[in-house]
Amino acid sequence: MEAAEALTLTNSPASATARNVRVLEFESPSRASAVSRIRARVRKLAGALPFTPEELDDICIAVGEACTNAFRHGHNAAHPVIGIRMELSPDTLRVFVSDSGRGFDPTQICPPGDGDLCEGGRGIMCMRGLMDEVVFRSLSPGTQVELVKRAKAKQTRV
């Protein structure tokens, strides 16, 4: 079984339970082939919240970009995994994608110009455009990106 398929429901801390937050965590191999399985897992779990299909697409694209960046830029041969943590509250999803690579300073990343046709370099810009909040944190070692999406409309589930 692939690590991305092994989902573990963690025990939510008392503060999370008091705020009505479910916490789910899993690790995935740090390789390109795992990104689609991570996106599918996130979509399935996020589908429990009142997101529109378009919001679910936005979440999956942003998570895919974060995972691809973790794989391409944060790979650590000694610890070749990407960590995924999801916090689900009644109308908000927080996804944390962590790697154990060298890390980077996101303020030093220049967005590509309009006429720039080079491959890559648009992931951070894409995540920021699709999500309500994007926060980068330095780990020791590695980087964590937090992606936050709030449901815009309440839907009735049947």
List keywords for this structure.
alpha+beta, globular, Heat Shock Protein 90, six-stranded antiparallel β-sheet, disordered N terminus, 158 residues
Question: Could you characterize what this model shows?
Answer:
- With about 160 residues, the chain is of the alpha+beta class.
- The protein has one domain: Heat Shock Protein 90 (2-Layer Sandwich).
- It is built from four helices and six strands, in the order βαβααββαββ.
- It has helices spanning about 15-20, 35-45, 55-75, 125-130, and strands at about 10, 20-30, 80-90, 90-100, 135-140, 145-150.
- The chain has a six-stranded antiparallel sheet with strand order 1-2-3-4-6-5, covered by helices on one side.
- A hairpin with a 3-residue loop joins strand 3 and strand 4 (about 90-100).
- The longest helix is centred in the middle third of the chain and has 21 residues, at about 55-75.
- The termini are far apart.
- About 25% of the residues are buried.
CATH class: Alpha Beta
Total helices: the number is 4
Strand segment tally: 6
Mean pLDDT: 82
* Terminus-to-terminus distance: 32 Å
- Give, in order, the helices and strands: EHEHHEEHEE
Oligomer: single chain
Q: Superfamily at the CATH H level? A: Histidine kinase-like ATPase, C-terminal domain
Can you tell me the residue ranges where pLDDT is under 50 for at least 5 consecutive residues?
1-11
Query: What class do helices, strands and sheet pairing give?
Result: alpha+beta
Name the helicity range. 25-40%
Strand numbers in spatial order across the main sheet: 1-2-3-4-6-5
Largest sheet: 6 strands, antiparallel
The share of residues in extended strands comes to: 15-25%
- Number of structural domains: 1
Radius of gyration: 16 Å
